[in-house]
């Protein structure tokens, strides 16, 4: 189950993805005094993307903890604090910088439970920004969440909607294992209406964001709005696209993907990561392994071009999946 | 976990600093019993590892095995300064740290055998010993990888207001890693209750101290982060214990992180695969002449608190403990292959 409806008469509120994330953090900090937020510029500065703005004033510098520029040390310290009974939320400015902490994430967070024969849980949540679209060039724009999804022992979440931005953190904190939460940089300003009747979301399942019958467009994170826009265009041509939001790259919810493919018999996977060795390749492999005979057409995908992300707008746009390229791929799939 | 833990005969941590009265905290307990216990722990580590060498030759133990022989005074001396509620984070050369921490020798031996009764259920091996109950957080085979983790354990204590110390062991090689320097800065900045123990055995695999550090005065550099940093003769367990007590007590009472450099030497090669071509026979012989076990024994004999019968009893006691550990490890089952995917995540059997 993806969501839990509340019984009350909660109203829908207009908000942004950024504010929804902040509300999720605020709620977690209020509800559990073991929860604290730590990272570069999360306090005084308010978070480099403004997510934690105002939290320092409410919770103080002990729990909204500014760190030095030491990704490895403060991510590792988060892991140690989790072992020591806390519930740390560690913010890394962007996924690109998380590579300086990759040792701690991969060699400690992901392995400790298994290596210790089940003795040590690591209930840490690591949040970071991912993705391109803001002309930040080749060291601030990559989508490496697919790499992280390669690692057994961690969860990889990609909230793409306001409701997931608002509620995924609580579920992530309730998980006894390490959770990586990827916030797409182009989504922070996304505005919309928060469904006031939802008061919890699950982490295990993908979600059909737009039902359809002709082709499945399977995506996640920052590509979801693009996929939905493409589906709108396709509808004008009489092509009914079903848009599936993976929500979680590890575990991958095969069942929802396969059910969708069983309905449409055609699929396009949209992934902002590079094509080679990507999460899109994994989704395709799982479909062919398990639902080969459901397919009426070869699987297609739309990924980032295999190039370090360029700065110039026209080049960056050409490097990324766009509604038009998704539409083109879907047309080929149904042709 | 081990099914046959022998708490009574296992190495105990001295609780000297817990006693309300007695000698000042920074002085080792002078008593005969305490000295004997220290000697016993060192002897247990020495004989345990010697047995591991035999078992390695017999192919009972596989993988990378890094021996601590020659360095026992550091683990045991520092161990005296720690309390049950404290935490230890270690390296891949950690048999001594684990045994000194009180991880039962049969659980450690079973882990070496890869048995399900091992302290990590056979999933870790020599380099990944764990014991959550004794707050022994590994066993880390990434050089310096345990340092940030130790800072985090200390941070948790700091935030919860508990008076616990986290002790992190690492080598002179680890000192060159960014993770050491990031951690030292963070720990000093946040005044974390962290005891950093650098075991300077003069080599990182085949690279000598002078070939890995532009400035070889490690304590001086550590002090530059804004923490007390001391150097101690790591072959003298009494000296190690004294300085470790002073440091641990200061850490415990809110003095922030402390750094200890223990000057020591590994008598054996880096690992089982190392032909040891980078050290001269002379150098090794000079350090072996400072065997920490021999030094302690001689001192105890000179003080009249150790004689031949007592030595013999100690040897027999340790030997029988190791014999029993080897026997039980040999007889213990392997974990069924059906359990392969357990403990990847907390949901049993899930691979995600
Ligand atoms: C990050 C990393 N780099 C390299 C290695 C390979 N390696 C294992 S032990 C070692 C030497 C470490 O020396 P030191 O920290 O002095 O510890 P010692 O072995 O002397 O106890 C090296 C290079 C490793 N395990 N991890
Ligand atoms: Mg060394």
From TrEMBL, chain A:
**Which residues are in the Transketolase-like pyrimidine-binding domain?**
15-190
User: Which keywords does UniProt give here?
Assistant: Oxidoreductase, Thiamine pyrophosphate
Q: Which Pfam families match?
A: Transket_pyr (PF02779), Transketolase_C (PF02780)
Q: Which cofactor(s) are needed, names only?
A: thiamine diphosphate
Classify the source by domain of life.
Bacteria
Q: Which CDD domains does the entry link to?
A: TPP_PYR_E1-PDHc-beta_like (cd07036)
Protein's name according to its UniProt entry: Alpha-ketoacid dehydrogenase subunit beta
